[in-house]
Every structure is written in structure tokens, then in C-alpha cells.
Design goal:
The protein has 13 helices and 8 strands. It has 302 residues and is of the alpha+beta class. It has a single domain, classed as DD-peptidase/beta-lactamase superfamily (Beta-lactamase). The strands form 2 sheets. It has a 5-stranded antiparallel beta sheet, with helices on both faces. A 3-stranded antiparallel beta sheet has the order 3-5-4. Strand 7 and strand 8 form a beta hairpin. The two termini are 18 Å apart. The chain binds glutamine. The site of glutamine (GLN) has 11 residues, from loops. The site of glutamine has 11 residues, from loops. Keywords: Acetylation, Hydrolase. GO terms for molecular function: glutaminase activity.
Length: 302
């Protein structure tokens, strides 16, 4: 891992930092962090693995988990499970599919999932539930929301406003659009380090179980299915390439983070703020490609 971190630090090809959320443009393009936690709870880390960054769409894995816990398979009436083949913020398929997003990991899908979590609660309570879930999984109460990032996206998130209004017009959202978006923008703005993120992902690597307590967070069946959706949809229109190169379920965010799951083996988090054309961390993916190759961790074989 130190060798991988060293290579990533030296590489000139770093991708471009997201600027459409102005606050994210301040990220350090030179940063690189990597953390791996195995089934026995051993942590291996390299680079800036303790620096909190904006996890953005990676929270979509955890909001999906919560929404399935709350309403079960009824969730699939308002969001699909097919790869979109389109950018994360695309609106085109929404019209063809009557406001039902293709999957829970594109923005429209995650907004619909957030709406399901919000129903029956005040926005503040729903957000508290999401944040406490992350703190519980990571066993770390210091995880917080970066209010500046949330405010920055709220000011400039016109595309998400359009997606939400479009879904609302088809009756896919139950709550006032600004409430749902308020919760969505805030959970995207959670800040976590690679170590905290790898901790939070452990239940997906171990059939729904927290390996340190032995307690089930979700059923093995649900964990397996969430991993399947991460594999097929976790990197938007770059999901096929991520499976081809890395071969693990993964979820990216425009903050430059990726959570990847080696089922039965490890929870992995990587961070490098520069993105490729599909909005996924350029060096993050490359580092995971190096790691899975050396460890023989691809789910498709060595
Ligand atoms: N909050 C971001 C958005 O809605 C999340 C996108 C992402 O990380 N891909 O645009």
C-alpha cells in the first residue's frame, strides 16, 4: 500500500477536481489516501488516510441501506436497479420511465431514496438518523456534516432541483421538494476520512455483519444485493470500466472518494480529489486496480 501511495503521489495525471459545487473546488489535488480493514479488524493505511473529505455520493450506499430497512422491497416501486449508462446527474431517462430513476446511485435515484427516509420525519430528524447510522457503523461519533459544502451545493444545485421537481410531477416524491433536497444536500456533505469510510463499509464485506461485534446490521441477502448494485451502478457510466479494471463492488463520490468491498475479505476506502470524465476519482480507481491485482481480490478471479 505504501508503494501504491508513493506511485499515486508522483503521477502527473491527476484528473480534475469537481468545481460545479464551488466548495469542492478547494480540495487539494495532490491529496491521496488509502485504508483497508480486514475481517479481523486490522487496519492498513497509506497516505492521507486520516484527512476528512467530502464523501458526496458514497453516502448513497448508506441511505439505500437505511431506506431498505425502513420500507423494504417497496422501495423498488420508486427506484429501479439497472445501470443507467448515463452521467450521474442526467435527466433524460426520467421522462422515458415516468419519473422513476434507473437506480439508487444516480442523483435522481438517491433523491428518491432520501425522500423515502424523510417520510414521517422532520428533515432534521431524517438527517440525524443518516449521520448517526454512519457514526454507528464507523464506531466514531466525531463524523460530521461540512455545512459549507452543504450550503454551497444548496446554492448551486439547480440540476438536482430540476430532477426532484421532475420526479415530484410524476408523484415519485412524497415530501416537499425543498425538504427532500435539503436532506440530500446535507448527507452528501458528510465529511469522513478513508479510515472512517472503510470502517463504515465493513458490514458489506462481511455478509451484513459488523465483524468487531459480530452483530448483524442487515441480513446477508440484503448485503449481497447492495454489493450487486454497487458493482453494476456504483460508478455511473463508468461502472463497466470499474468492474473491468478493479473487479469489486464500489461506490464513488465527486469528492474523489471510493468505497470498495472485497466480499468476505476487506472494506477499502481510497481518496484522490481529481476526477475522470465520468466524475469518478482518477487515481482512486488506479490505486484500487493496483491493490486488487496484487492481492488477487477481484471477484472475477486472479
Ligand atoms: N452531491 C452531488 C450531486 O448531487 C453528488 C454527486 C456525486 O458524488 N456523484 O451532484
Amino acid at each position: 500500500m505504501s508503494e501504491i501511495a508513493e506511485e499515486m503521489r508522483r503521477r502527473p495525471d491527476r484528473g480534475e477536481v469537481a468545481t460545479y459545487i464551488p466548495e469542492l473546488a478547494r480540495a487539494d489535488r495532490q491529496a491521496f489516501g488509502l485504508a483497508v480493514i480486514d475481517a479481523d479488524g486490522n487496519l492498513a493505511a497509506a497516505g492521507d488516510s486520516e484527512t476528512p473529505f467530502s464523501v458526496q455520493s458514497i453516502t448513497k450506499v448508506f441511505t439505500l441501506t437505511l431506506a431498505l430497512g425502513k420500507i423494504g422491497d417497496r422501495l423498488w416501486q420508486r427506484v429501479g436497479r439497472e445501470p443507467s449508462g448515463n452521467p450521474f446527474n442526467s435527466i433524460v431517462q426520467l421522462e422515458l420511465e415516468k419519473g422513476v430513476p434507473r437506480n439508487p446511485f444516480i442523483n435522481a435515484g438517491a433523491i428518491a431514496v432520501t425522500d423515502a427516509i424523510l417520510s414521517g420525519h422532520e428533515p432534521r430528524e431524517a438527517l440525524g438518523e443518516i449521520l448517526r447510522f454512519l457514526q454507528f457503523l464507523a464506531e466514531d461519533s466525531t463524523i460530521t456534516i461540512d455545512e459549507r459544502v452543504a450550503a454551497s451545493e444548496k446554492r448551486t444545485g439547480f440540476r438536482n432541483v430540476a430532477l426532484a421537481n421532475f420526479m415530484k410531477s410524476y408523484g415519485v416524491l412524497d415530501n416537499p421538494v425543498d425538504y427532500t433536497l435539503g436532506v440530500y444536500f446535507h448527507h452528501c456533505a458528510v465529511a469522513m476520512s478513508c479510515r472512517q469510510l472503510a470502517m463504515a463499509g465493513r458490514f458489506l464485506a462481511h455478509s451484513g455483519r459488523n465483524p468487531s461485534t459480530g452483530l448483524l446490521v442487515i441480513s446477508p441477502e440484503r448485503a449481497r444485493r447492495i454489493n450487486a448494485i454497487m458493482l453494476t451502478c456504483g460508478h455511473y457510466d463508468g461502472s463497466g470500466d470499474f468492474a473491468y479494471r478493479v473487479g469489486l463492488p464500489g461506490k464513488s463520490g465527486v469528492g474523489g472518494g471510493i468505497l470498495a468491498i472485497a466480499p468476505g475479505t476487506a472494506s477499502i476506502a481510497v481518496w484522490s480529489p481529481g476526477l475522470d470524465a465520468a466524475g469518478n476519482s482518477h487515481l482512486g480507481r488506479l490505486a484500487l486496480e493496483r491493490l486488487t491485482k496484487r492481492m488477487g481480490w477481484s471477484i472475477f478471479g486472479e
